[in-house]
């Protein structure tokens, strides 16, 4: 009896192996701290023409990488969240105020990350959460802008993501945001650089395929900022865009550029329905 | 007499005599995706082609293609079809066309064009992310490297 069980286990292991590294943990579900349920796969939003199901990048990572995101004590990104709390509470600027002076706690801003980028009526443009934070600093605190993809800003964004974990991404793409969204879509499908590759070539046409040693995901951004094992730091979404564009042997856009803001809105909308999961862990 | 003439032509083209026979990217003629004329007039070297196919900064063909004969090199991709038997499926002329500019054979394909210098959107200076001047661009592979890869592909028979 015991022997039989062992051999069944061995068989299951063999089958898992035969299925190949490519599908490691792809069926798994993500619950953080045994408490926060993360939607890692769901029906694609209606505006997506070529994809039926959307998947978090987490589902494409190895079991080991996946495990790091299941507990905040193991998630190296959470250190940066703690640093973000310090920035949140620190007074800055001529008004002597901190974020906490007006927003009380980061938890008070729960849900905000899920709906950004978002149209800003006063500025008459689409705002990323970084742009909104910098507006609070310049217009409400009398402080300097934080560097758009610098450490303090990224830690604040990780903090605001962390308090929204488990909430569905739900960015608006109609109304005044529509033209920015359309632009982002155009950028997503543009084949750039000497390799003439678009985001879609890799992340829509070939997700779940290996490209050399990399298991291609859908390039979702619900997990940003992302702690990458490769560079052992928290990576902003615009830095990730930059890296992927550069890899097509193209001239990239700069972080904070209107192009990347548009691309961010478009990509966020491709993840509408997945949960916010930043700070995520990726390889 | 003839010699002087060639030398003069070479000086005018501002290039070295040995390169005089190379077909420039813009001068390559495709017929149904195939290229009949050798790009260098010299036979390709299959061993050199194998290096081009497996090296990241060169062809990096195995990033997208599985090739059983190249199993010593780790991590073969799944974006394109396996190249096993490519030497049976295609003539040398067709292989030259596919490697030089696969878009001539497979409309809209993801496979990069390896022997072309213009017509890009926002071309970069290698992998720096910085802009390249269009006139400074080199094709991803040299004419001889294309011939070398073609020679290697021709060995992939079943």
From TrEMBL, chain A:
EC category: transferase
GO molecular function term, any single one: electron transfer activity
Residues the entry annotates as binding heme c 1: 99, 102-103, 136
Domain annotation Cytochrome c: ranges: 79-164
Co-factor note (free text): Binds 2 heme groups per subunit.
Signal peptide per UniProt: 1-24
GO terms for cellular component: cytochrome complex; periplasmic space
GO biological process, one term: sulfur oxidation
UniProtKB keywords: Electron transport, Heme, Iron, Metal-binding, Periplasm, Signal, Transferase, Transport
Reactions it catalyzes: S-sulfanyl-L-cysteinyl-[SoxY protein] + thiosulfate + 2 Fe(III)-[cytochrome c] = S-(2-sulfodisulfanyl)-L-cysteinyl-[SoxY protein] + 2 Fe(II)-[cytochrome c] + 2 H(+); L-cysteinyl-[SoxY protein] + thiosulfate + 2 Fe(III)-[cytochrome c] = S-sulfosulfanyl-L-cysteinyl-[SoxY protein] + 2 Fe(II)-[cytochrome c] + 2 H(+)
Transmembrane regions listed in the UniProt entry: none
Active-site positions on this chain: 244
Subcellular location(s) per record: Periplasm
EC annotation from Swiss-Prot or TrEMBL: 2.8.5.2
Binding-site residues for heme c 2, renumbered to this chain: 199, 202-203, 244
Cofactors demanded by this protein: heme c; heme
Residues at which substrate binds: 240
Assembly mode: Heterodimer of SoxA and SoxX.
Record-stated family: Belongs to the SoxA family.
Stated name of the protein: SoxAX cytochrome complex subunit A
Source species: Actibacterium pelagium
UniProtKB/TrEMBL annotation, chain B:
Residues making up the signal peptide according to the UniProt record: 1-20
Organism, as annotated: Actibacterium pelagium
Keywords: Heme, Iron, Metal-binding, Signal
Record SUPFAM superfamilies: Cytochrome c
Name of the protein in question: Sulfur oxidation c-type cytochrome SoxX
Residue stretches making up the Cytochrome c domain: 44-157
Lineage of the organism: Bacteria, Pseudomonadati, Pseudomonadota, Alphaproteobacteria, Rhodobacterales
GO terms assigned for molecular function: electron transfer activity; heme binding; metal ion binding
